[in-house]
Amino acid sequence: MTDTAPHGTVRPGGRTARVRAAVLEAAGDALAEHGFAALDLTQIARAGGVGKTTVYRRWGTPGALAADLLADMAEQSLPRARTGDVATDLRENARLVAGSLTDPRQGRLFKALIAASLCNGQAAEALHRFYAVRIDEWAGCVTDAVARGDLPAGTDARRVVAQVSAPLYYALLNTGEPLTEELADRAAAAALAAARAGAL
User: Fold this and answer.
1) Quick one: 182 exposed, middle or buried, by C-beta within 10 A (0-12, 13-18, 19+)?
2) Distance CA 89, CA 115 (A)
3) 77 phi and psi angles, rounded to 5 deg
4) Contact, 93 vs 138, CB < 8 A?
5) HSE of 87 in the Cβ direction (CA atoms, 13 Å)?
6) What's the pTM?
7) What is the CB neighbour count within 10 angstroms for residue 170?
């Protein structure tokens, strides 16, 4: 899932937190603008106004920096919807994903991180962790629906949530179909229909 908090969010913390925030901001900008190949630690240190030695000591490699960026994005991700209606919750999830992927910065950033994951093991592992965290967060709306009797017992909550976002990523990376609210709503409705039919 890519439902992250607004770009530029400032969180409290000491010097270490400020250094991390500055470096990750610079890394995100570089990734969004130029891709993983542009993730040069010396240039990131300069752009973030941080000492080069600090950056190399803390992160060491572009892959480690990309991994920390994903960890930070997971930390800032918005919590799941809790409307009490699984159809509404899944629709909210789909719209958040579509909104993130069409955001001028976030969309490019995720494309760069996905591309990085194909050639860098650290980035791949971090991307898998990111999506595991987001799927686990949103799976709660499905388990709540099962507990209410709205979905069949034994429904795999994580699979349902993954089914919501899969068509959106397919459109982003393969077909180029516009990521509209209508597409998001259809993805949510299809996942819910499969869950209600016991297919998930």
Assistant:
1) exposed
2) 30
3) -60, 145
4) yes
5) 6
6) 0.78
7) 12
Mean pLDDT by 10 residues, the chain (200 residues): 46 73 90 84 91 91 87 78 91 92 86 84 85 89 94 96 94 90 96 94
Q: Which CATH architecture has domain 80-196?
A: Orthogonal Bundle (1.10)
Give the separation between CA 2 and CA 116, rounded to whole angstroms. Answer: 16
In angstroms, the first-to-last Cα distance of the chain is 19
Tokens of 24: 């990750």
Tokens of 94: 């789909």
The answer as to CATH 1.10.10.60 being correct for domain 15-73 is: yes
Distance CA 157, CA 195 (A): 9
How is the chain split into domains, by residue range? Answer: 15-73, 80-196
